Amino acid sequence: MTHILDDYAVLSPLRYKNNWLKLAIVTFGILTGVSSSSPCVPFVIALCMGFATVRFGKISAGFYLRLLAAPAGFVLVSAVIIAFFFGEGAKLFSLGVWGLTLGVSEAGLNMALLVLARTLGGMSCLFFLSLTTPMIELFSVLKATGFPDSFIEIAMMMYRYIFVFLEVAMGVKYAQTVRLGYRDFRTSFRSMVMLGSNLFIRSWEQGEKLYVSMNARCYDGKLILLDEKRPVKLPEVVLTIAYFALVVTVYYFSRGMFIV
Amino acid sequence: MHIFEGFLPSPWWQIWFVISIPVIMYGMYQLNRLVSKKREIVPLLAVAGAFIFVLSSLKLPSVTGSSSHPTGTGMAAILFGPAITSVLSVIVLLYQALFLAHGGLTTLGANVASMGIIGPFVAFIFYKAASKAGMNFYLNVFLATAIADWVTYVVTSLQLALAFPAPEGGVMASFVAFGTVFATTQVPLAMMEGALTALIMKYVVQIKSDVLVDLNVLTSSAVTKLKETMQ
Questions:
Q1: CATH no. for residue B161?
Q2: What's the average model confidence in pLDDT over A132-143?
Q3: Which residue of chain A is at minimal alpha-carbon distance from B197?
Q4: Is the minimum CB–CB distance between B155 and chain A shorter than 8 Å?
């Protein structure tokens, strides 16, 4: 884990677009996706968001697909459970395991597909946000929404230190790997313990130093952020409205429509 | 055990937000009180949160070959108590959703409820009760961390079961289904993380035990006793 998604967001050409517009697009997609009753809607959302991320965000398609595969393990297992347990009536197919008959009914399969599509749609919206908007841009949004100051302060400092510790952790891990520290289960466990405890002690000392250094620079419990003004341009508005209209149309015409 | 974006259908993700938000508000109130008393706590908590994030992004060595990550919530609960852990976990879960694609935004409420509130709370109660009863510190940390993971996974299974009840047998049947399937990865994972945290604590006691005394995790007499048994 040497790269986190934020690294891609910092380099993204969409970084300098209006934050509120991007948030509106993402929120709209997530909410309509999760409340739709047909798998078509989240699927369309996933296509649009995927296209926007790859085309406008200049993310390589292979990398994007690999990202989407990350939640696949959890989602597939859960979807299979839903397919088998959800819904009654005529079974599409069934199989006997240890004297039990397990069957997948039409309703169950539809439900599983719907959940699968919703997760796909939701994750693609989330990826659009996290691959185009670095966290630094979102702090001013957080400030505007009225979260308590101490919460945002902690979030900001945590953000900074995630990178510091990731680098330390990767360095240590690399050094351990070179010395065959992850040779087998026993040694990797031992290395992991050393890495974790060193990281804890180091982070604690870092925290104390941070307090001293911030105090020395007159920290009084408030970090001031410069909120850059980024006007929304006309083509962006037109594209967003077209996207919203497409999703709403699909939503309207696909009510209660299922694939199976 | 993160629930991914879009997985929970409509009434349920709102319900879990409604459950989590009051607890988080209480946690923030506690945090603000603590900050006004001890200002140095802000950088320390931030650094601790970053530590939890980095710990949770490391891959645990696993026997089955599946990718598994520690949650770090049990450790946070032992160190900072459940109220502050809930606030820290909101930030950590948000960052995990945005940076690592673990979890999601609509499911944030459900994930905070299971990983940030209920799991750490139970672990904290267990830790306090067991240390009062005089249990060995390392065993206690091991059990408390493992329990935090297990409770988290039980709550997640329950959340999934409530959202997708089976028509025959209802919530209970699908709870058992989700529970047994996830148990295969979660039970050994929790034990791994428990052992990891207990050993980390052992190093911390050896090298920087004053931190644990400051945080009220151990009394100074307990620390000296632990150090004596080590020699």
A1: 1.10.1760.20
A2: 84
A3: A193
A4: no
Q: Confidence class of residue B144 from pLDDT cuts 50, 70 and 90?
A: very high
Q: Do A221 and B98 touch (CB under 8 A)?
A: no
Alpha helices in chain A (DSSP H): 5-11, 19-35, 40-51, 61-68, 72-85, 106-132, 135-144, 149-178, 185-216, 234-253
Nearest residue on chain B to A128, alpha-carbon basis: B98
> Do B203 and A173 make contact, defined as CB atoms within 8 angstroms?
no
Q: Is B215 on the interface with A (CB under 8 A)?
A: no
Residues 6+ apart with CB under 8 A from B119: B71, B73, B74, B77, B148, B149, B151, B152, B155
ipTM of predicted complex: 0.83
C-alpha to C-alpha distance for B131 and B221, rounded to whole angstroms: 13
Sorted by where each begins, the domain ranges of chain A are: 1-133+231-260, 135-229
User: B112, B86 in Cβ contact below 8 A?
Assistant: yes
Nearest Cβ partner for B47 among A84, A120, A161: A161
- Residue B172 domain-assigned? yes
Q: Residue A1: is its pLDDT beyond 50?
A: no
Distance, in angstroms, between B31 CA and closest chain A CA?
Answer: 8
- Alpha-carbon distance of B186 to B166, in angstroms, equals 23
* Domain housing B177: 10-230
**CB-nearest partner of B97 from A126, A153, A166:** A126
Task: Give the length of chain A.
Answer: 260
Q: What percent of chain A has pLDDT over 90?
A: 4
Higher pLDDT, A98 or A104: A104
DSSP B61: P
Q: Give the integer Cα–Cα distance in Å for A131 and A129.
A: 6
In whole angstroms, what is the distance from residue B52 CA to residue B76 CA?
8
Structure tokens at B219: 């009394």
Are A46 and A120 in contact, with CB atoms under 8 Å apart?
A: yes
Proportion of chain A above pLDDT 70, given as a percent: 89
**Among A242-246, B58-62, B220-224, which stretch is predicted with the lowest mean pLDDT?**
B58-62
